[in-house]
Amino acid sequence: MPLHRPDCDDNAQVVVEKKLKEPDRYRVLLHNDDYTSMDFVVGVLCGIFHKTLEQATSIMLAVHQHGIGQCGVYTREVAEARVNQVHFKARKAGFPLRCTMEKA
């Protein structure tokens, strides 16, 4: 038997608010090495990370000058996929380019 509360309208709808948690974000990073060409890195940044030529060149120079550069910030699944794509493309081309991800 349903519980009837006299202070409630029988036709009232109950709205339950749930706070949705944003998914964790991960930074995808490229690491400098002495073998991977700058042109290849720019190509990876344009092709896999959808950067413009100017953005890709800037990130490539950061990798070259500082040893590391951020390609973007993504959800875990997207970050993992991008890291794997970079490694696959680099190995196929014969480069040891290293790409990692870390929690943002």
Automatic annotation (TrEMBL):
GO molecular function terms noted in the UniProt entry: peptidase activity
Gene Ontology BP terms: protein catabolic process; proteolysis
Keyword tags: Hydrolase, Protease
Top-level taxon of the source organism: Bacteria
Domain Adaptor protein ClpS core: from-to ranges: 21-100
Keyword Flavoprotein in annotation: no
Entries under NCBIfam families matching the protein: PRK00033.1-5
PANTHER family for the chain: ATP-DEPENDENT CLP PROTEASE ADAPTER PROTEIN CLPS, ATP-DEPENDENT CLP PROTEASE ADAPTER PROTEIN CLPS1, CHLOROPLASTIC
Purpose: Involved in the modulation of the specificity of the ClpAP-mediated ATP-dependent protein degradation.
HAMAP family per UniProt: ClpS (MF_00302)
Assembly with partners or alone: Binds to the N-terminal domain of the chaperone ClpA.
Family: Belongs to the ClpS family.
Name listed for the protein in its UniProt record: ATP-dependent Clp protease adapter protein ClpS
